[in-house]
Records
---
Amino acid sequence: MEEEPKIEEMKNILFLFMLGLLFGCAKMMEVGSDKNAPAKNSPPTQEAVQPVLNQAEVKQLENVIEIHQKFQQADNKDKWLSAIHTLEIEEVSFVRMSAFSLDLESNYVLHYRIYDKDQWGEWMLLPESKEKVNPNRKVFSGLNIFQEIQKIQFRSSNATKSPVVFRLFVAHNQN
Amino acid sequence: MGKLRQVVSFKLIGCWILISCGFKVAAQDCGQPNFCDRLCWSPQGRHPAQASPAMTNPSHIIVHHSGDNLVWPVGTDFKLVVQAYWDEHVNTNGWADIGYNWLIDRNGVIYEGRGDGIRGAHFSCMNQATTGICLIGNFELETPTATATNKLKDLIAWEATDKNIEVLSGSQHPSSQLDLFHISGHRDGNSSPAPQSCASGTVCPGENLYNLLSSVRIDVGNYQCYNGNPNLLDCDNAISLSCGILYTGEASSDTSSVFSYACNNWTETGPERVHIITPTTDGPLTAELFGFTGDLDVYILGSCDPSDCLGTVSSSSAMYNEAKAGQSYRIVVDSDDGSSSSYQLLVTCSSPVATEDIELEPLIKLYPNPGHDFLYYQIPADIKLEKIAIFNSFGQVVKTANPGVHIDASQLPTGTYIVRFTDQFQRKTNLKWVKNK
């Protein structure tokens, strides 16, 4: 009779051990994804996108990084739809970020925040252009960023029917 | 050259008087100022012009600011900035080219946008018969530099004489269906009833630039090349001065051109050296000569005309109390006895950075003031400073510093500065500081 509790206790310990093992593996995978981040100043890749809720296509163009971001699924916590991109933009004069979408119907607000010096900055609004600069596009005005960008996170207040194209013009230092 | 132009004399600037009061013959077109063309700002050819641009004959010159969210820091490469605007206009907005016809940076460099006579994309979907000039910056946050403002005037003077645009008056702009000054700001299109208008209450070109437009019109109207009046003084080679910055120069050794000024009662017999200054705020303007030998006199002129002498003169100093922001003043050093002495000239203007909310004052003390290489400050214990920036008299940031015991100002030239403190709640205070030799 006294053994019974011991067996139960062993089972519990084994269960907790297995749970811990699984958790540890998950953590290692998460760290591993950071290791897969692109080398500094190299083109960002699809692998850099996390989490997988809202997928994106990242294009490295001449002086410009284009992120075609789909906002389809809300985060569980706060109902925002978001995605993080590892960019490692450093030693630049400035970055000018603008965005557009061909989705003229959906109502949504865009925010971004920047991860730099190992911490996230405040959420900032990416304002929609006041003037209708193009009848076929919803355009978000250009903003200048004067800091290095390890990662950037975008979030939308609602799902969009077509991707929002975030465009980061990267002005490299000439020195 | 020698075009007949209708010139409406606007004595009441700001009022709408669309009646022609006189006719003048322009002596010549004002020359096109030097500019950085597309190959200059995009040497790799990655920012091409549109293949088949629509042409237009501008009747109105629309002034813009770029309206950036932050002030461009010291040392910005504005060629990259123009590239960034092109990229945004073409690839984000989906336009055929950069929207503006011309851009001007705060150092006075003019950049070719769409260029001359091409219809732009800048005036709230009402671009026909306009040309768009953009001063780079956000003039809700900062004040345009005198150098940039002067280049704007030069560019307008050329456009105006080349396209027969009367700078002091206005007329109906068909696309917007609005009566507009021929030199207008983007925001002037906000009230357009035109069906194609896409105006939505823009503040462009920013309050601080918009308020200068009346001075810009007057100054361009005073250009010799614009109005055909010959100048006695050599204003084309006027030396640019900065408010509060000591200038060292040599008196002219040429022959005398001007024998009398409207604000003195003696005869000048010596040669003149002309300087130009453009204050960025309304208020008193003083000019004072130091360190010279012989008989040098100084005058403040409202234009290049000696009869337009302003304020009071007391030989080596002059004062004019009602200087207007954005208007250029000529400071003339007249060597009455013909001696070509060296001299130092200090022109002081009203403090330029006065529009910022002053919320921390008088909690912060700055000392010594006037000071020299290091300045110190005293703050209450409950205030945590986040940043410190020093602005010159043009409102340009010349130094930023992290909060510490003192600020090293040893690299700054002598002059008057504004030191802006920002605390953890983004409250700001601006304190005037004078650096002595």
Note: Chain B has a mean pLDDT of 84.
---
Amino acid sequence: MTFAVLPKTHVETTTLPRPQPVRRKRAAAAQLALLPMAITVLGVYIGTVLWSVRISFSSSKIFPKNDFVGFSQYERLFATERWTVSLHNIAIFGVLFILACMVLGFFLAVFLDQRVRGENVLRTIFLYPYAMSFVATGLVWQWMLNPGLGIQAAVRNLGFPDFQFDWIVNQDKVIYTLVIAAVWQASGLVMAVLLAGLRGIDESLWNAARIDGVPRWRYYLSVVLPQLGPAFGTSFVLLAVGVVKVFDVVVAMTLGGPGNASEVPAKFIMDNLFNRANVGLASAASTVMLLTVLALLMPWWYARSVQSRKLVHS
Amino acid sequence: MSAVVERINPSAAAPVQRKAARRKSHFTPARLGLYALLVSSAVFFLLPLYVMLATSFKPMEEIRLGRLFALPLNATFEPWVQAWSTACTGLECRGIQVGFWNSVQIVVPSTIASIFFGALNGYALSFWRVRWAGWLFGVLMFGAFVPYQVMIYPLVRSLATVNLFGTLGGIVFIHTIFGMPVMTLLFRNYYAGVPVELFKAARIDGGGFWRIFFQLMLPMSLPIIAVAVIMQMTNIWNDFLLGLVFAGRENLPMTVQLNNVINTTTGERLYNVNMAATMLTSLLPLAVYLISGRWFLRGITAGAVKG
Amino acid sequence: MSNVTIENLDIQFSGISVISQLNLDVHSGEFLVLLGPSGCGKSTLLHSIAGLIDVHDGRVDIGGNDVTWADPKDRGIGMVFQSYALYPTMTVEKNLSFGPRIAGVAKAEIARRVERAATMLQLTELLHRKPAQLSGGQRQRVAIGRALVREAGVFLFDEPLSNLDAKLRGELRRELKQLHHRLGATMIYVTHDQVEAMTLASRIAVMKDGKIQQIDTPASVYARPVNMFVAGFLGAPSMNFVEGKLEQRDDGTHFVSPTLNIDVSSYPFANPPQHQQPAVLGVRPEHITLSPHGTQLAGSAIVSLVEPMGSNQVVWLDAQGVSLAVDADAQFTPALDNRIGFTIAPAHVSLFDLQTQQRL
């Protein structure tokens, strides 16, 4: 589970640049202090990525080998049914999860913004799932969706003998159970981000709208929503990155089953790295994951840097 | 002309009780609908917690009845005791308490180390000019988005080479590294809000890099350190993947042990023990969440949107 | 243009009375300024006229219609907020036309109104810009334009200049005054800045603790303040206050204090003064004249500080612990720590009761 810490946009770029506060020779201590960061970035972040990409072009099995076999690992990868299933699953999961979280999170944020009684209590309730680990979430929902003893059984006992809710053992529907569990966990996050965005909107805008005779729902649609663009963008990126990384929930809830029906790329890679000793194949898969993340992030980064440049020049 | 305006009101008996009829009611249908929606959402979110608690206090006979939402008739602490001290986590059956203490051992040093480096980096980046620092920081930020799987295998090999793989030191080191982007960003944004005049005054007073850091900046950072502690404690405690790979069999964190208890048993699955174990694993982060309240929220949205 | 009448207004927040039994008449076409310190209720009053705050009791009339319980949109008002509250993601043209569009006004009519407002306010070239691309003055005009397009009868202003730096504030103030002259609109303006009040208002209502202390033209409120609060609020440096007594002497009534002696026989007392009645003398800095070699001095004091202002200077005197500010011309600079005499013209003083602080 990652938290949403994001670089400031408007505040950073519209304040005056900091005057350079130190002479060059004094920077030695600062350089020394930043050495761990430098090592981390170069050695870990850049180094491992390069290493993984390199290995993906080799024929490594249990141990890394130094040979070069071109794209054969990638070809093998996309011929593996488990991998293509995992891609298919992650796409469906991603779309449903992000959509559901954004919609639910938005409505929860708007409802909480209406000056309701018990706002603090409600907010605490909506957000606590985010404090739990993904493993715990997966296990609880696995239990609740257990056909014999969980929700299906409980509803049948209440007098609906034909009620069916055995998605978790159904190959076609198991992916939706993952969506439910993940949305339960993460909507609170979207709500929190959007609520912060809502609170940043000029309060007198609603007064001006009242005088203009704008009804509340129209105000949210035409005045508030356009201003929440950055907040939605932030939420989307956070959720999207979470989608690519999803692992814990699957392991806890379905172990990729039944069969391979709920396999996801992260789990595929871990299995091939450690259990099936296919290091080269797994590295190829990791590289594909990395490229996907980059593809998702690039437009967002680009949009943000254009926006901040616009602010500086206006 | 300069009379004070408290005019004598001629019609003191003017009809004034209209307000009762005209006053807008607070309880319009829209308002009621709003509360209905909010309450149903709350039920959706609270349901799993309720089920977890209810199941964990039931004896197995009640669970086999399949009444998930019923309250326990013969509530018992037995599942909790079992989960804590006798559940089987793989080869041994000493309960999930082993995982609890492991997690504590992992979380405390990792939190301290990652916060220390985050603060140090944020401080150096904010106030001191190092030529390559900006570029490195940019790559670090990018690193926060890279999926772990890309980096895991090389790290495993590297740690194995220095005999740190599967040790407590190794997992702490890993958590420190992976926590660095978020922590550095957090502190850098915080220090960006500190007036640079404060720093300059300290320089004029003769402070050097380390002295200013330890004696001025760190003490000033208590609010953001609180936020960072909350974030790191929760994140690291809830981590599964890194603990699974790097901690080694003696140091497996509670989340990994939990998964072992539940998903790898043969014979009848003791659902009440499972739920008790899940509750136990979630107690610490939930407690942190409930106690920290607004700080938790600050941690989530640190630096987001309009800062 | 509409007039506004307020009768016996009562406003409460959580059971605490913020405004009680307030009466106010705003004439059609006048520029009324509600002036007062923070928390005096001026913004609350304005918001209740707008219908943004519910009143507890009383009546609000706009243009002859009882609007006490009407929605803001039905009151025929327009409002300019401190932050101008322009819809940030809409162009100027959309900002202006949003209200009528919601109300279902015909497109042709909306276009006509927008064009008229834009011409009056010189916004025609800016119609396709967004608020972030406008200057402060332009934003103020768009905010006013919104009210114009709605064909408002009354324009309400909630401290629109408070966020701006001094120079811009002066420019926009003058623009606003010219606009009022051109439009002839009824304007109610809230501020804590007495300079804005003096320069803009046709009448000033000075408020304190939810009550109107005095409502009159700027000149009257300035020259004949009705109590010490109003006297001290207007004018900078503010009016000098000296405590003393009224004494009946052979040659008339005198105000006497340890440092002053002034013949106030010609003062228009509301009630005949009593001998030895405690009083506070109020005199503005510009009505004290320094006279180094004078006769008929009102008193003398030590020069403690001189602040040159360019065209004039402010000389601070220390009269046995009482500090007096004198607005003197820049010709003659008195030496510090020297004793100097001064005169006060009795026609310009104000006398207040020591206890009640009301004008005598």
Note: Residues 112 and 209 of chain A are 20 Å apart (CA to CA).
---
Amino acid sequence: MVTAAISPVTLVGSVRDPEIPALAIGDLGIVRSVEVEGDHVSVTLIPTYSGCPAMEAIRSDIAAALAEHGYECDITTAYTPAWTTDMITARGRQVLIETGIAPPTKFIEASCPQCGTPAPRVLSEFGSTACKALMVCSSCREPFDLFKEHR
Amino acid sequence: MKEAGLEPQTLFSEVLKHADDNLIIAHRLSEWVASTPDLETDIAIANIALDHLGVARALLAYAAELEGLGRNEDDLAMFRSEREFINLLLCELPNGDFAQTIARHFLFDGYQLGLWEFLSAHPDPILAGVAGKALMEARYHWRFSSSWVARLGDGTEESHRRMEAALGVVWRFADEMFEDQPGLRSGWDHLVYPVLADANLDRPPADDQRHGGRLGIHTESLGHLLAEMQSVARSHPGARW
């Protein structure tokens, strides 16, 4: 039984990325479609990185969020067109900066999310999760994550 | 979904061989986790292994669907025997020292750059989609392996010696990558040879090339790898967690 007035589109889009909890998956740009028929919702997601372990958690969080409001769902994965970091919304990029993560850009165009200084050093192109690289600010010396550009 | 003219069996074999390449090299690379020279390298290697595993999972799931026999991605990964795997021999080679692992990935990453670009225009939309995604990741893999080749080859006397020896070990497995797609060879040559030149490394001899992986005829290493990779699934069939 559907119990609330919140639309399934909003429910799905508001699910958080477990690896960047401030970021909603709607802003991450991975929700391809949400189709509602009665109390059944069909969700199509596009994977970010091929091996991203967060996708499993995101699926179960979507199912739980919908179930809480009386919806059943099926979740499928689409591969074309492939997700790129250009699909992250402007709000998503802002959330990343506020979380201390530099939004996706080329390494040479990155700047420190703490002090804004350009031209950080690339410490490693592979960081704490599949989507991040590890940088060090050349001015404030703070290490920070950069959301890797994929396009 | 299928374009006319693509036989499901042909597409199944095509998808499965790329799935196997990625699954087997992912497992091999993951053996390094917690044993690499430094923390950044450890994280990089874990990430790269995860990328390959992710590609393998997407392709295995699709292969299982194409096969239509009720098997799933786990059945294909965990309940096939050595002779049923059709991965490239290169992918199953033991890690050896760090230089040998880097050499293996240098050859393979260069191959995958060309392969994914080629397959991203494949008439099958799912294979093309997975390839398009994998291409973005392969660029990172290539930068990692080729920069290590340059660093080791042009580094100390010992690192040069080891990098040279490592290339000698893996080079026999280069031709096999192009036996199905000879058109990808020249692009690979143009990627790989300049890096070797920059790293002061000679081109290894091209003789004594090994083949057989695509026919399920493997080196002695694959059986050992599978014994470990499949042990939990086979000891506890149907286990869920």
Note: The CA atoms of residues 48 and 120 of chain A lie 25 Å apart.
